[in-house]
Amino acid sequence: MGETTDLLVVGSGIAGCAAALAGARAGADVTVATKASRPQESTSYWAQGGIAVTRGDPAALKRDVLAAGDGASDPDAVDVLVSAADDAVRDVLVETLGVEFDAEYGREAAHGEARIRHVDAATGKHLLVPFLEHLRDREAVTILEDAAALELCTHEGRIHGALLERDGTVTPWFAGATVLATGGIGACYRRSTNPRTATGDGIAMAALAGADVADMEYVQFHPTAFAGDERDEQRGRNEPGGRDETRGTFLLSEAVRGAGAVLRDATGERFMVDRHPDAELAPRDVVARAVADARERTGEVVLDVTPVDFAGEFPELASACADRGVDPESGIPVAPAEHFLCGGIDVDARGRTSLDRLYAVGECARTGVHGANRLASTSLLEGLVWGRRAGAAAGRTSAERGPEPIAAPDLADRDPDLPDRFAAEKAARLRRVMESELGIVRDPEGIERARAALRRLKGEVDAYTRTRTSRSLYELRGACVSALLVARAAAANDRSRGCHRLQEGTPANAD
């Protein structure tokens, strides 16, 4: 037995919400299943900078997306993004949700002009909260909070829904179509701007079901995460009762550099002017490597916000600094942190995966837009555009054919007494491997060490999943599978490009 719905959307960030809205508009009854019990547990909530639009010049935005992608983006996918950008923002965010963007457009790294629509430096919060409220008010949409998808229901290459765990009970939810919108893999790294719920669940479930994945080696690091909480970050991720684990490290939005802030090393030198013609507004991968180098060379990097009216233009960031006892006028310590996965489940222009009736949108999906490095403020846009397209396509077909219940996967009996420390210890081990071997700069020997360590770790986790069922265990499995996919893709790519950077001297290194 189980529950049924026309369209099952797994995830409640902007991509999942856009898919749910479009599915409901297409006539489907929609169920949104989300691990989150509050909006703060979604990566979209923490998006600071904003959402890019074309300002009437889609060709210019396309040029910037392709340049940032370092030659690995799919031009056809970028055409889809830029042609739909303005209409998606107008339709959903402005007319449907009534979001009141700031009057001035922001400019961020690698953008040729100011084209970022934002609300202070907390845009994600101001989009996601009203989006969820709007969906709750729609009769055709049901939101299941604190509901984790453990496994897809599959039969002969077709997806029929997913097993959902909620309040300790695992229930099959059968659907005419399923949309994965589960976010990225930030929990695979020690320091990340993602919430702790970003364990790669959707990518792992899809890959285990046989779906194609692509570009997993391209893991983007944001150059300006707050560095003053590194010790607290380690404690919060490895010890119960540490810092708030619902979110990642505090991010200093790229919009601050767009407004004029500069980066300085421990000697006071503004080092980016010698690294790239665009200095602090160079592509993210360039700035992240430069910050890491300067920290290693001099011991510290700070974001100098004295050229900016920081408290006036970015009040929420100024408040966050004050909460941490940091005087912005003295320089804010920053360091790179894992931020975004450019690859994921391979999808087409409608969000369709290689498996029948399965779609993927948002960070868990590889649309081809981002290539080897994502352009700033295009993640919310991509999620919105592909969410609308996938939701409309899945909604129409699922409403027509409805759910088809099948024999659900047979999981082991739930073990409520599974020690949390097992999952915590294994997760900490995984993060150490990913941080040391699959970070900003990699080498072939380190990648192979990572593959070997991750294979052993996955074997230990698989042994547990054969006899036990728990959310933490399946999240750990998802993280292991996703991490292995990153390592495998990194090993197969001997060319330095964008976020996948090999140490100088590596054979076949393009640089």
From TrEMBL:
<feature type="domain" description="FAD-dependent oxidoreductase 2 FAD-binding">
    <location>
        <begin position="6"/>
        <end position="380"/>
    </location>
</feature>
<dbReference type="Pfam" id="PF00890">
    <property type="entry name" value="FAD_binding_2"/>
</dbReference>
<dbReference type="InterPro" id="IPR005288">
    <property type="entry name" value="NadB"/>
</dbReference>
<keyword id="KW-0560">Oxidoreductase</keyword>
<feature type="compositionally biased region" description="Basic and acidic residues">
    <location>
        <begin position="228"/>
        <end position="247"/>
    </location>
</feature>
<dbReference type="InterPro" id="IPR027477">
    <property type="entry name" value="Succ_DH/fumarate_Rdtase_cat_sf"/>
</dbReference>
<dbReference type="InterPro" id="IPR036188">
    <property type="entry name" value="FAD/NAD-bd_sf"/>
</dbReference>
<feature type="region of interest" description="Disordered">
    <location>
        <begin position="394"/>
        <end position="418"/>
    </location>
</feature>
<dbReference type="InterPro" id="IPR037099">
    <property type="entry name" value="Fum_R/Succ_DH_flav-like_C_sf"/>
</dbReference>
<dbReference type="GO" id="GO:0009435">
    <property type="term" value="P:NAD+ biosynthetic process"/>
</dbReference>
<dbReference type="GO" id="GO:0008734">
    <property type="term" value="F:L-aspartate oxidase activity"/>
</dbReference>
<comment type="similarity">
    <text>Belongs to the FAD-dependent oxidoreductase 2 family. NadB subfamily.</text>
</comment>
<protein>
    <recommendedName>
        <fullName>L-aspartate oxidase</fullName>
        <ecNumber>1.4.3.16</ecNumber>
    </recommendedName>
</protein>
<dbReference type="InterPro" id="IPR003953">
    <property type="entry name" value="FAD-dep_OxRdtase_2_FAD-bd"/>
</dbReference>
<keyword id="KW-0274">FAD</keyword>
<keyword id="KW-0662">Pyridine nucleotide biosynthesis</keyword>
<feature type="region of interest" description="Disordered">
    <location>
        <begin position="224"/>
        <end position="247"/>
    </location>
</feature>
<comment type="pathway">
    <text>Cofactor biosynthesis; NAD(+) biosynthesis; iminoaspartate from L-aspartate (oxidase route): step 1/1.</text>
</comment>
<keyword id="KW-0285">Flavoprotein</keyword>
